[in-house]
Amino acid sequence: MLSSERKQHLDELINEVAEGKNLPEFVVGVSNVDGEVYSYVGGKKTETSGSIDLDSIFWLGGETKLVTSLAGLILIEQGKLSMDTPLADYFPQLRNPIILGNVIYPTIYKPAETVLTVKHLLNHTSGLFYPKVADGTLGKPYTSKDGYLPGIPLKFEPGTDFAYGWSSDVLGFLIEKVTGQTLDEFLKENIFGPLGMNSSSFYLTSGLRERLIDLTYREKGGRLTPWTGQLQIIEQDPAKVNLPLGGIGLYSSVRDWLTLLRHILQIQAGKPVEHPIVTRETVQSIFSPALPEAGERSISTLTDLVNWGPNTQWSTAMALTTEDWPNRRKKGSLFWDGYTGCEFFVDPTKGIAVVLGIHILPWGDQELWNTV
């Protein structure tokens, strides 16, 4: 546990960083390999704000990719999938993808030469991509409007580069095909249940909705206002959720996320763990770079552009910091963020995990990025 002096120092540090920033209420949680050691609640209350703490519910957005990747790795450990499993074995639509000459104006294309596999989904070298959307809304998936193309469009030849896109969503669909369960059911059976993550789900059931923190929206002038549907978001009515989206759809709490990250830290450190969800070898793979040189350049450009730090790789599950980022993350740290601003990192060298829970849109809020 932290001493009262160190806790006070952390309180003062976060106060100093957040002071004067126009941010909605947020919660920070920290864990070491043994348990939770620190929490902090800050930011501005809105008229509709309720209480907020480590058990409050947040829409995690892109952080969802971590648990979907872990689910895929579990199936590989069980021998039900392999890194080299062709996706077309389960989805004939992916048998003959095409490579676009230009992702914005897809009039020039050529057939892909490489078979899409599970590995390409895990390390995001599939070429499946999110379209660029200027107003911060969620990009739309491929639809029938793309039907004039002779195959599923990819940004590049599979395995040659990195693209942040639909890879984790397709992996979630694959998990459902292989197991005969919904992604939510598989995760509850293999990750959430064993770890006691009772506040994590793709469905906002009544027990979770009451603890869901309201979304806030920053207007162009900088003022924070309550969320009233200014942008399209994912469906939140559980009765209307047809497909759990493995790339963006999870709801969880800071405490649950710390539980998962601590479990990963414990396995990575070789500590005795009751009912480990994956082997140490698999955990080591999520702390190991998996991108080719071009992919490393692409993701480093992306993360540096949005102030997540330079020198980045992707593993079989999440982004990795490949060099120390002064006064921020250490080399070897696992990290990512979500559509509403939630963030986390795991430092295996120091043996700590840090999670930020916050709800602010549009994505890419500068006040938040300049703070964290």
TrEMBL record:
Pfam families membership: Beta-lactamase
UniProt-listed InterPro entries: Beta-lactam-related, Beta-lactam/transpept-like, Diverse_Enzym_Activities
Source lineage: Eukaryota, Fungi, Dikarya, Basidiomycota, Agaricomycotina
UniProt protein name: Beta-lactamase-related domain-containing protein
Beta-lactamase-related domain mapped to chain residues: 11-357
Domain of life: Eukaryota
